[in-house]
Amino acid sequence: MLNKAFKYAFAISGVLGTLIGILSTWLTAQTLTVPPIQQTQGKKGTVLFFINEEYGLTNVHLDTAQALLEHHPSVTIHVASFPEATKRGIGNLARAMPIFALPWSAEDHLNIYHAAMQVLLRVDPAVVVLDTYMTPAIDATRQANYVHTIIESNSMIHAFYLAQPYWSMFWKYPMLGTGFTYPVPWRQIPENIYVTARLVYSFLFDPHAREKRKYLQEHGIANPASYNLHRPDVPWFTRTMFDAGVRPEVVPANVTGVGPIILGVAPAIEQDLELVEWLSKTRTVLVNLGTLFTHNEERATVMAEALEILLLEHTKVQVLWKLQKCTDFPDDFARSLKEYGDRIRITEWLAADPLALLETGHIVASANHGGSSCFHEAIAAGVPQIIIPFWTDLYDFARTAEDSDIGVFATKDTAPQWTVEGLSEAFLRVVHGKESSRMRKNTRRLSAIAKKNRGRYVTAREIAKLAGST
């Protein structure tokens, strides 16, 4: 029996080894240095932003545009976007990965490409600022050969796995969506190798993506939706803060981690005076799971029960919970919370910007979904986090928060499913006790570092230089 099992294991490892060899050869080819290309520079002092419609991905661009307006008034800014500029599982992730680069149909991609090309020729910018997810605009910018830069909303390592030496993307760096610690523990290396190989394989051999690329090439786009966006002559900025995240062993010379790129907002007291007065009563936990997340009745019930445990255990804590329902279910899930009176507020929307609320100093914990914006806003404000992830990169930010000792990865053993025990334990750990004190200290230290060189001003300064306005 053991001999048979050994043969199966040996066969599987052989196939996997062959696959890794093929993938590694391709990865090595992808990371070869591309010689700089002479780029076209249009009207001096003119900056064109191409952004997607999802605010969580593009707020770094809007934040940078605001910083340009504040500190570089000679720059003329144009923003091109759409009219509405606004299950954890390796199988699901593998199927989704090609979609990240080619989310549109081939025809729609081509139409957006032509629209972007028209904008480029009409505006004739000195520099184009690109969103990594807006692939048709990237294709147009590179086809027209304009000077450009990239602002990445997520972690640096996500974009530069391929640049790391010794094939370490397989065995050292946790692959996107795994939530593994860094470096990957020995026992989880085989799984990380499998996940990495499968994701890269899906990129290379997804038939729909290949068909789309073939169509786009036949219609005149030289290298459509390239998986390797990095070029040595194109400045690249990320929110990465090495004191709170994975530090890649190799960072290309033109790539800069500027830390949190955060939009300057009016003080909360100017946005919602009554809410700030309520916050000032006592220590507050903010539960805000992002703009896209909606609760079903089951999740709302689990969250309500976990918050009840928190309120029962800590009588000097109150809760502000932003709850958006996905369907019109009754409010029975919150019945037991009524006895806590004004110590808990449940609202469908926040009148004040979440960052402004964090900056009041009254929020002791930010319970969020682990989106890049929420993660970096909490760091900038010096607030520990309870991260409740439910897809891809959210698991990585949850793990980063825990590894950096600035928060807790809630429901770690059951994500994306919630349990009362998993949520309540996370709330209690962050709000009170030895861990809580340490997390507050660490987060405040990171906040002080971030405030010395604010990421949006650093990025805006470099873009202004590229535009020839300084």
TrEMBL record:
GO molecular function terms listed in the Swiss-Prot or TrEMBL record: UDP-glycosyltransferase activity
Q: What name does the UniProt record give this protein?
A: Family 1 glycosyltransferase
- Record key words, sorted: Glycosyltransferase, Transferase
Superkingdom of source: Eukaryota
